[in-house]
Amino acid sequence: MKTKHKPVLLKELIDSLNVKPQGFYLDATLGGGGHSMAIIYRLEENGLLVCIDQDENAIREFAKVLISKGFTEEENTFTKSDLKVVLHRSNFANLKQVLASKGSVEFDGIIADLGMSTDQLHSGKGFSFRNNEKLDMRMSTENQVTAANLLNVLYKKELQELFEKYGDLSYANRLANEIINYRRSKPFETVDDLRFVINKVVPMHTRTSNFRLPEARVFQSLRIAVNSEMQVLESFLPDAFGLLKNEGVMGIITFHSGEDRIVKNFIKDLRSRNLTNIEKIIKPTIKEVEANPQSRSAKLRIIKKLITAQNERKNTKP
Question: Which residues does the record give as S-adenosyl-L-methionine binding sites (predicted)?
Fold first, then answer.
């Protein structure tokens, strides 16, 4: 199946990486593979790209793409003229475990796109509010908790906090109340169950041009909670930065204010320890947003690792 996903900020990210033909790179969120393929096109013999995704469909479909491009497969490693691409199905929170078999490999560049791919939105797992599907929202089937589970078992206060924290919803209290009322007569199972409740809290006739789709933020909140996305990001960032070579580059694309806050605070900590002196913040152009509306809230932060003899001594624990 050909991917329908359009990679966000593609040129800006790849240009910022300044890909070395024989460099080592890591894509921690493979998704539709657009960013990874752009890196592959710039690699030559002895170059390496490691791709991670917890979605088995993403791994399987990208493997097909590599084979169609002339790569040969041996287990999870794909080779073409000594250029290697390694695919791992895992959450990027498990970065250290995934790379343990590679020894002490360090990367020239690491990227992570924290958004949903178009393919995932149409995966039948209830990520999109536009299709009446089961309220699953799990990125990986190894996760036991679904969105429906959360809606059916969380207390009112927990629901309210979830929607306030992950969706910045001013009506989180009313939404939590209506969820409790609804599940007294019927458990949440499908997208339409949740849409019914949202429409009751924010009726269609009350929606302004700037507030037309409250469903998007409600569904986003649940997806973040189901997959523990904020907690995973907090553990990923220091692990990934530790795997960069000196002067290696890391690019993180965020779509949510909470995600961006975590990345910004991480960079602030690096600066305080003199571990980076370069940071770029890049947003999509008007042209890209018009061509791909999903890129509207995207924000790319680029950081470069800086290790000198002085700050190595300062930051090394005895």
Answer: 33-35, 53, 92, 113, 120
